[in-house]
Amino acid sequence: MAFRRDSAEDVNLDARLCRLFLPLTFYHSVAPVAFGADSISVGGDSLALVADRVLLAIYSKRPDLIVCTDEILKQSGSIRNDILDEPLRQELDLVDRVAPVPDVALLAPTEVMLKKPNFWTFGGDAYLQLLQNYVSDNWYKGGESNYSMVGNLTLTANYDNKSRVKFENKLEMKLGFQTSRDDTIHKFKTNNDLVRYTGKLGLQAKNRWYYTIQLLAYTQFTRGLKSNDENTYSDFMSPFNLNVGLGMDYKLDTENKRLSGSVNLSPIAFSFVYVDRKSLAGNYGVVGDHHTHEDFGSQVTVDLTWNITDQIKWKSRFYGYTTYERVQMEWENTITLNISKYISTNIFIYPRFDDAGNFDEDLGYWQFKEYCSLGFSYDF
Known about the structure:
Helices cover 11% and strands 46% of the residues. By secondary structure, the chain is mostly beta strands. The strands form two sheets. It has a twelve-stranded antiparallel beta barrel with strand order 3-4-5-6-7-8-9-10-11-12-13-14. Strands 1-2 form a two-stranded parallel ribbon. Helix 1 (8-20) packs across helix 4 (70-76).
């Protein structure tokens, strides 16, 4: 069947011939498989069975083509698998080497600084403007219609612990001067003069409602005069008004932050008036040789700020006090039109009612003040 070679050279030669003529190799497994089949039909057999029958036919008819056996192939060796045991690695020379990362302790010491929360907020605004001013003849502090200058400074300091306590403080200072050619007695006199402090201490009751005690104190810087009149109609601490109210306060603040403010209702209120100048005592409720006057009543205070647009703002303050025998009401309205960051114009409208004052034939107990101004303004 096959030529058998015993020497090592013969085995190597047969191995080379087997690689060149791989089909001309005697396989011992061909004959048992082929003879074990019942038929020689190709159609119903597998491809391996057909190949074994073809090889068996070659072995029987052309034995001269057999150059090696499967034993010789096994002696020549098999495909090396050891090179696949480990992955192939390519050695590379790195041009830029990264410095090793130092080991960091997982529990490195750190410094923790705790800051005490600051519940105070501070702010304010100021302006200095020229104005055209109208004052009714019966205005309780004097003055006259004119062109003049006015300066204003407002400071706020508010405390809110984000829990239940609020403490609000506002200091308003306003002073304006005017000159008049028709006034032969005074070179200049005031047309706006106010020092006013408003303080509110509130304890939250529910949602936007607070139990509140409110303190309102106000006077002026200097004398209030009228044109061609030597009399003094008001002065520093003449009068000095102090109002204390106990009630509830409602905080208003819309979602778009355009409208904000508060409404204070004080069913129990105390009013104290002090007049330093004796000659002015009768004008402010002080009777006889006394310098003071006290009474009890109820009061309401409304402070609103409405940012109509980014350039137009309306600030309104309404104050009303009554002893159920006399009534005093004030409604201050300031409309600000911002021309630029530092230039603005103000329209100030201030109606006032006080049935304890002098009665005017035209306006009765109503008093009215208005001015329009243009100048510098600054918010902080």
